[in-house]
Specification:
By secondary structure, the protein is α/β, with parallel strands linked by helices. It has helices at about 20-30, 50-55, 80-85, 100-105, 135, 140-155; strands at about 5-10, 30, 35-45, 60-65, 75-80, 115-120, 160. Strands 3-1-4-6-5 form a 5-stranded mixed beta sheet. Helix 1 (about 20-30) packs across helix 6.
């Protein structure tokens, strides 16, 4: 039974939006996670995001952020309180629920996780096309470290994979 999800959000065909799946691939290649931790590339979920979140104790999501006040490549951790305090998504449909809405729905489907955060990086370019921008690509090691730090705050230890593997980034070939 999993109690903690580390999930990468994003579309690998939309430039910097691929950061979530990219960081998940780096984590899987370089670290060994204890039992109870699920590492998963969530892609661009719709309403099924609720099914990934419900009933867990903690969730660490990795995603591209849009923040015009910060330079591209800036790493930021967004906590549950800030996510829930944000405005409702405009034009919500069955294919694009916001994280806030998915968390609110989990109350009726197994309960909201006690700890939720998004480890994100400010995107430079999320237009159609494979490949991260240079500023976002440079943030990958920092994002990996930020995820490990969040896991430590949750009391979860991880070990280095020996030997470390290479991340499987099929979308960059």
């Amino acid at each position: 039974m999993h109690h903690t999800l580390i999930g990468g959000l994003g579309n690998v065909l939309m430039g910097d939006d691929a950061i979530g799946p990219t960081v998940v691939a780096h984590l899987a290649a370089r670290l060994v996670f204890p039992e109870g931790i699920k590492l998963h590339d969530l892609g661009t979920p719709g309403m099924d995001l609720v099914l990934h979140l419900a009933g867990l104790r903690s969730v660490v999501l990795i995603d591209a952020l849009v923040d015009a006040t910060l330079p591209a490549g800036t790493i930021r951790v967004v906590r549950l309180e800030e996510i829930l305090a944000g405005p409702a998504a405009a034009g919500l449909d069955a294919h694009s629920p916001g994280l806030r809405e998915a968390l609110l729905l989990t109350e009726h489907c197994g309960g909201v996780p006690e700890q939720v955060c998004v480890v994100g990086v400010v995107a430079e370019d999320c237009s159609l096309g494979a490949g991260l921008s240079d500023s976002v690509r440079a943030s990958v090691p920092g994002l990996v470290e930020a995820v490990v730090k969040e896991l430590r705050l949750l009391g979860v230890g991880v070990e280095e994979r020996v030997p470390p593997g290479e991340p499987e980034l099929w979308w960059e070939r």
